[in-house]
Amino acid sequence: MNKSLIISTTGGLLLFLALAMLLPLLVAGYYGNREELRAFLYSAVVTAAAGALMKFPFQKKDTEFTIREGFVCVVLGWTVCVLFGSLPYQLTGSIKGFTDAYFESMSGFTTTGATVIKAVESLTPGIVLWRGFTQWLGGLGIVVFFIAFLPTAGLAAHHLFAAEFPGPTADRIRPRIAETARLLLKIYILLSLLEILLLLLGGMPAFDTLCHTFSTVSTGGFSSKDASIASYQSLYIEVVISVFMFLGACNFVLYYQAGKGKVGHVLRNPELRFFALLVSIIIFLVALSLHSSATGAVEGKSFPGALRRAAFQVLSIATTTGFTTEDFDKWPDFCRFALILMMLVGGCAGSTAGAIKNIRILLLLKCTGRELVRLVTPRVVKHVKISGVSVEEDVISNAFGFFFLYLGLFGLFSLILSALGIDIVTAFGAVAATMGNVGPGLGGVGPGLNYGHLDLMEKWVLIFCMLLGRLEIYSVILMFMFLRR
Questions:
Q1: Which residues are 389's β-sheet partners?
Q2: 8 Å CB contact between 216 and 241
Q3: Domain-wise residue ranges, the chain
Q4: How far lies 267's CA from each of 101, 262, 271, 352, 402, in Å?
Q5: DSSP 8-state class, residue 120
Q6: Are 188 and 294 contacting, i.e. CB atoms less than 8 angstroms apart?
Q7: How far is residue 348's CA from residue 247's CA, in Å, rounded to a whole number?
Q8: Mean predicted lDDT score pLDDT of the chain
Q9: CA dihedral 210, 85, 323, 120 (to 10 degrees)
Q10: CA 53, 57, 63 angle in degrees (round to 5)?
Q11: Residue 161: what pLDDT?
Q12: pTM, whole model, 2 decimals?
């Protein structure tokens, strides 16, 4: 394994992160907060210095990645960027203690949205913006941003891209990975600019618009308000954010295809149709449950009111964003169970969303249908097809393996939290919310609460869950395997 290449690449990521810290630094300067300005300046300098010391002394020409270096670079790059990304929290005193600062930083970069902060509105503007900006950076992926501007990006860069970009396969739009990364970045920026415009038209303050856009397109969920989206009491804002949460959870390759005029191809995409159908069914069922329950009294027990409540919250959870308009932990058990299921399923492959992904669920359902046919007619040869194309058996095996590994780790970490003294509802909710990169869970980590009250060990378990969820398990496991050799 080429350790010099790994160290040099990680240093490059830190230099990029130091550059990203200039945005909250400018915001701190605009609001005239000298203490915050110094904190971000020191953070940027320290991060840049560490990056330079790692990059330039170890940089070698004509060196290419193998798959081993790719996986190690991605996992190491994320953990190191999270470490240096926690500096502003500690230097400003916004968050006390290394563990809490690292938890908040990991939650930001992995677009989880779980927080240890009780009163967000008491934070300084630069820190509030930094929380949202880390989610925006982490949404498309720090590594993808880095590849987009990497001068030497070529054939070897696909190992980095495949290790970081979520989904069963890393779809290429262009033959060169750097071109693919740049196109994805352009789409990402375009969606962000469009949401900024629409939220401003809806009367949301400019600063809040920027923060919520960062957290929406990335399906992150950090808000600049303690009450999240509920603080605005605006149907227009809820609709705009709902639309962009859904767009953020769709495969970004589809936007490129739509831009090329292949709209019909996009609308026929099986994963997109399955995702839209599943979300629609869950919204309708949750709305019925809310309408027939006592909680419906909040909206006069009208079905349109229940539908509005269900639509935003189900979309928020299904897209793994985690914005809230109310405390869904007080909803009927059916609704809470439905939301937990959506936390596990998540969005589409190739999106900023987390969890298992709809394409894997669709593959598993098709495989189940094939096995039922084989039971009736054992000699029939039936292939699993997506968009009329037969899916290779190794892809199916990968989907099955990931599905059972995900559920197995979900059970294991829930068991660990229970052994540490957390009640079973909170344990299930916390692990589902962090592995799925959702944010708010159930019980002691519900929408009306936060993760700040958890013990040290419990937070580190959930930190690891967030990293596993963002890098889709295999990358982290393979890194440990490669490091042992």
A1: 386
A2: yes
A3: 3-248
A4: 42, 9, 10, 20, 27
A5: G
A6: no
A7: 10
A8: 88
A9: -80
A10: 125
A11: 59
A12: 0.92
